[in-house]
Amino acid sequence: MRSRLLGDGRLVLPAVLFVVTTIYLYQAFQIHPQYDEGIVGPRFLPIVVSIVMYAGLGFLVFDILRDRSPRPERAKLEFRNFLPAVAVILATLVYIAVFETIGYVISTLIYVFALLFVFKFDQNVLWRVIYSIVITAVFYILFHTLFDVRLPTLTEWF
Amino acid sequence: MEFSLHILGGFQALLDPTVLFYMVLGFLIGTFFGAVPGLTAVLAIALLLPITYSLDVVTALVMCASIFMAGMYAGSITATTINIPGAPSSMMTGVEGFPLMKQGFGANALGHAALGSMIGGSIGAVFLILFTPIAAKLALLIQTPGKFSLILFALVVIGISQRGAIAKSVVTTALGVMIATIGIDVMQPVARFTFGTSALVEGINLMAVVIGTFAVSELLIQARDVVHARTVDKAQVANFAIKRRDFIPLMAEVREIGVWTYLKSTIIGFFIGVLPGAGGSMAAFVAYADAMRRSKRPELYGKGSREGIAAAETANNSMCGGAFVPMLMFGIPGDPTTAVVLGVLVINGLQPGPRLLDNQIDLIAPMFASLFISALILIPLTLFLLGPYFVKIVSIRKALLYSSIAVVALVGSYVATYSSFQMMLALVFGIVAFFLRTANYPTVTLLLGFILGPDLEQYLRRSLQLNKGDPSTFLTSPDSLFFLALTALFFYFMVIRPPKTPVTAT
């Protein structure tokens, strides 16, 4: 019943976008122009875009509700299918959080090692470590040496 | 005359060893990204975007052009050999190429794909050189209300070209425009949608949107779908042995395909490229369908028609030249790849428009030359030198590939402002795009909404300011009326009375 109410999960994204648009529209009404431009001030396009978004979402929801055919089994959204993607998101969040603090080399080494695990790298731990070092080194040379990019280092703290 | 000299100067610029090195490097990167299923030329240029900060603008644009041309052609490699198109634009090539592969003519099919790509790509580049000055003169005639209507036309056509997903494309286009409105207003010194965060006052950086939408989301999708350790199963490519001489198409086969097939497919591809949002898939499909309709041997289609391969590959590579015309002269990208190239232009301080030809043609001309040389010389040369190894190259470990892409994408987004805030934004947009793609929403329209949104708003408000708030200016201004009528025409033929055969845009 709950699944049908949410259109087999297909209504979740439109619902999220509806909430985002509503917050956006509310914020649009809070914009105070510096000078009067008539009807088309800084809040004009955001309001129009919100209306277009609502219309698009309306059509989308109508299509989903009208479509009574059951979704193919493989197309159903199951949380466990998303676990590797969630793992990548978490690893990336940690990477970004520590990137400037502990520097490129250590953070990238750990990040690549974690990603090799998520992407089911079919070699033993030693090879994972070796490939993590190689990838970190290759892109250090690419960014730092070839493209002259100043990458954060742990030594900046000392 | 002066324009022709600049174009010749563009070819001369390619003789610079650094520029030449990056053109060849770009071509090899494009070939790899085009051939490997799951990777695209758009992703390659998106990853290149941060590096353009360190590269000279001429080098960056030359590299983008060669990636674009190579990526469009290389999709045919896996489409023909293992029936998995490396790029969506090679779908029709797979339909004809794979049966030929099974009959033992795989190398011959690849040869025809390369010949078509070479002809289409090089003539498309010549058309680009010829049509750009004309488009520049036309662009000068367009006034402010016309510019608004032109952008509206582009957004509508891009949206409705996503057949079967029009409501979804409306939603993602609107989302793109919404993201673009974050930061200082286009006309007044007013901060919008910053939610009290000073980091958002400057607005959202294009790089974060591009890298998030194309690289980070791809990473998440590949993580979700990771079943096989390799991009292409090693068993599928183990027995792929061909000789170089088999790549060369027979003269009798070329004669049977006919000059007109190549030329017509080139013209079809180029003008589909000019249309906003159409892309290589549509170019290949329309040219293929046209070739099949007037073929002397239609019974071969679906069973290994060389004519079908030639038409599709000629058109999708010719599209590359066409897609640059609206991007350079009107700031409206014809396809996702040129949308990212537009980002490269903007990052390097180049403003698309007719003045580009007057003031900065010396920066643009090498890019035209790169498109031409990539198609005419690098496509056949790469096939001849690397052809026998192509399929082996595309079978690599996903873990290594996507870990590398993750590092390039995230460190690349850091480069933009030397701040991890951009990395965080790239991740956020990546997550958004991941959920959109999982639910089959087109993300290209999100990017185009983001790119075109500020201009849409600026021209709308300027037009109304100049005409005391009277919206009838959009109907009384001839150029604006023309684009509005064109929008209505496209809407009628693509939504109200759509063609019966399904066509999918990239």
TrEMBL record, chain A:
Keyword Protein biosynthesis among UniProt keywords: no
Domain DUF1468: 13-152
Pfam families named among the record's database cross-references: TctB (PF07331)
Transmembrane segments: 12-32, 44-65, 77-96, 102-119, 126-147
Top-level taxon in the UniProt lineage: Bacteria
Signal peptide positions (record): none
InterPro entries the record matches: DUF1468 (IPR009936)
Swiss-Prot/TrEMBL keywords: Membrane, Transmembrane, Transmembrane helix
Protein name as catalogued: DUF1468 domain-containing protein
From TrEMBL, chain B:
Name by which UniProt lists this protein: Tricarboxylate transporter
Pfam families, per database record: TctA
Transmembrane parts of this sequence: 20-49, 61-82, 109-131, 138-160, 166-187, 199-221, 267-289, 327-347, 367-387, 399-417, 423-452, 473-496
Keywords of this entry: Membrane, Transmembrane, Transmembrane helix
Nucleotide-binding listed as a keyword: no
Organism: Jiella pacifica
Domain DUF112: 20-448
